[in-house]
Design goal:
Layout (H helix, E strand, L loop, with lengths): L18 H11 L3 H18 L4 E5 L5 H9 L4 E6 L2 H10 L5 E5 L11 E7 L7 H14 E12 L5 H18 L3 H14 L5 H11 L2 E9 L2 E7 L1
Parallel strand pairs: 1-2, 1-4, 2-3, 4-5
Antiparallel strand pairs: 5-7, 6-7
Bound molecules: S-adenosylmethionine (SAM).
Amino acid sequence: MTKSTNVNADELNYDKYEAKIYDNDIRRSIPGHDELHKIIEETTREFSKKHKVKKVLDLGIGTGITSEKILKLIPGASLTAVDFSEQMIKGAKKLLAKYKVEYLLGDYSELDFGTDFDIVLSVIGFHHQNDEGKKKMFKKIYNSLKPDGIFILGDLVTYRDKNKAALNDAKHYHHLVENARDEKALEEWAYHHKFLNVLTPIEDQITWLKDAGFSNIEIKYTYLNTALITVKK
Ligand SMILES: C[S@@+](CC[C@H](N)C(=O)[O-])C[C@H]1O[C@@H](n2cnc3c(N)ncnc32)[C@H](O)[C@@H]1O
């Protein structure tokens, strides 16, 4: 069977980072990272007004930047946090020490992460799933949610329109040149984008989300290759 994830944890620069340096670098490297997170907070706030949120799943928790924002809004919820990088989980454990969190170390395309979640999120990690992997994950996530639960997908995407895709890529690299901490960090993040990221057209992903059974599909944010999609079971 071919693997859905195109890299091992130790091939990613995340796996080598000290958490605080990572937190700064990810915000510099992902165009619109802060704006994306503001909309994730708004979405969570709105959702939690109408639903009692008991269980949240973060696929690719990293150092916990995204989940911390969610747990601040719904501190009583229990979080299941998946990551295949021990180094990232170490960072998340520090940041989220006061919350109820279960950590699962492993590849989320391969492990059983459970069911009955109210919110599933994956933010800036799905671009390491190949296209078949993305399709399979959408179905797996659909099955892991409670009825009316939501999936929040923030990621780097591309577009079917090749001109738009090329222009966004050029601007993504420009963003890295303008914002990288130093030349070494620029080299790492440029390598990451050129050789490790599998960007899939957002239009294809919307089709696969529908095929998986999701409704209320909303593209809530786009900026260059960065996008936020929310869907409901
Ligand atoms: C870039 S971080 C994002 C963290 C946070 N959401 C943010 O925006 O800063 C993505 C995380 O996903 C993890 N990851 C990527 N693919 C994975 C997979 N297939 N299984 C488990 N973890 C994965 C990486 O190790 C990394 O820690």
